[in-house]
Write a structure and sequence with these properties.
This protein is mainly beta. The protein has one domain: Jelly Rolls (Sandwich), CATH 2.60.120. The protein has three helices and 15 strands. A hairpin with a 2-residue loop joins β8 and β9. The chain is globular, with a radius of gyration of 17 Å. The termini are far apart.
Length: 229
């Protein structure tokens, strides 16, 4: 089952409303419509090339409410394009209760997950083996700058304002804790290369096929049209 455009449109609208209620302001390009993009030239190629903006995916699961993500990328570099690169990235993440990405790790990216507002965020962690499976070894992570010892499957509860640093090759999933309400989190990281740096333990599709059951209201970050001539 493909992800429906109606689900994408509704989730972007929900994210806009949730971020606003949390006192988080989005840049103007978050609100550019399909019509607006028809007038945009090469001066906004950083948005196109770095895939800034809205990112809604179910990773090919067909179960968006369980395995899915709605993100807004504020800043990032782009290894696929020449020129000076930002070595950092920042995303806002909508965290409905229980919704998560598939278990995965990053080969090189280091990231902080920060609970910005709302309910609690639960983060489950396990180290990856050289064979890209779950390790049985103990490890440590930094929670608000403090070292915390962890065992495989360790779950950290982040209350609003708290953060955790996730090193490369650390398998993780995080989600809004059931019973605590909608949460907004953010990711601050080294350059994010979703095409080559993600390793999913279960085969997943980062940018799934879509069912165009209603008109597109906003472009996703992997859909932008080329610059207007």
């Amino acid at each position: 089952m493909n992800l429906k455009r109606s689900q994408i449109n509704a989730s972007i609208r929900l994210a806009m409303d949730t971020f606003e209620k949390a006192g988080i302001s989005l840049p103007p390009f978050a609100f550019w419509t399909v019509e607006d993009w028809r007038t945009k030239g090469a001066d906004v190629d950083e948005i196109r090339n770095s895939r800034l903006g809205w990112d809604v995916t179910d990773f090919g699961s067909g179960e968006f409410e369980k395995i899915g993500r709605t993100l807004f990328t504020l800043r990032n570099g782009s290894l696929a394009h020449a020129g000076p690169q930002k070595p950092y990235a920042e995303k806002l993440i909508l965290d409905p209760e229980g919704q998560r990405a598939p278990a995965h790790f990053h080969r090189s990216k280091i990231e902080d997950i920060i609970n910005r507002s709302g309910g609690n965020v639960l983060v489950e962690l396990t180290k990856a083996t050289p064979q890209n499976t779950r390790s049985s070894e103990e490890f440590s992570v930094q929670v608000d700058g403090a070292t915390v010892r962890a065992t495989p499957g360790f779950i950290v509860r982040l209350r609003p304002g708290q953060s955790i640093c996730i090193p490369p090759r650390t398998i993780h999933q995080f989600w809004g804790e059931e019973g605590t309400g909608m949460t907004v989190s953010s990711e601050v990281s080294s350059l994010c290369d979703d095409t080559n740096d993600n390793y999913f333990l279960v085969p997943s599709v980062r940018y799934p096929k879509l069912d165009e059951d209603e008109p597109r209201q906003f472009y996703l970050c992997n859909e932008y049209p080329r610059a207007a001539v």
